[in-house]
Give the backbone structure.
Amino acid sequence: MSLDGSLSVRINGEHRRVPGGTTISEMVNQLGLDPLRVAVERNLEVVPRSALGQVCVEDGDDYEIVHFVGGG
Amino acid sequence: MNAPNPVQADTWSVAGRTFTSRLIVGTGKYKSFEENAAAVEASGAEIVTVAVRRVNIADPGQPMLTDFIDPKKVTYLPNTAGCFTADDAVRTLRLAREAGGWTLVKLEVLGEAKTLYPDMRETLRATEVLAKEGFEPMVYCVDDPIAAKQLEDAGAVAIMPLGAPIGSGLGIQNRVTIRLIVEGAGVPVLVDAGVGTASDAAVAMELGCDGVLMNTAIAEAKEPVLMARAMKAAVEAGRLAYLAGRMQKRRYADPSSPLAGLI
């Protein structure tokens, strides 16, 4: 954790900082995404959509945020 | 004719869901979402395959597939395209299940980039894991009747052998193995991959397949929406021909007009 209390995380391979005490749902919203239209994996474990608003982001977390795209 | 027309009630079911259309279309390679949506409409497909990919967090406002093809009206079948190990495929589908909330999925585990041939050892392993976790996997596989049975035993809800390599448009290369898979299967069989044009789709259906899955044949046609219509007609024609039962082939001619009464 940094001096200002922000957390260092990776999202889809990119480094990001989020304020301490942020839930995953809040983090997804802050990215400009609708939590109802994505799926979130945290440290290789899928986070159920119903839990996104309860689970707080922790320093060092590694997230994958995915959605459906065109494919065959 | 008292018998009901069998064609009007000709539906097929996979994992407890019943569909009228026997054509499943992909949603990749289209020039635009609009064209993609129009092609799906023209194809009459009730199921579309979709891929699972990272959202672009640098540009989250981009239009999304779900804005154009409504998952409430068309069944989304998430795939594992691009996965080369069972672990990657299972991980992808766990996310897909959370993103969509459904367990009917398309499993494909690829062996190499050049041919996109399935790695059957990894495919079988992934099928077992997925079935244990409550998924209902429709499984892309080689056109091998033994492998098809093994997949079915492992929990595949549909067997989807390739007709030719993905995206090749070469048509069905081995009608014998496709027919053998159809004859031996207790779950639906759909040719997945290799269809290039309408006659290829008709051949698959004439062999007794329950359906056909295609992407590139429509998306890379000069007029995708027109080809989607063609594929709809071809799948229906092939299915009808299969149900009708084709005539026996002869080595030589047999006149259609009576020989008697010639002047």
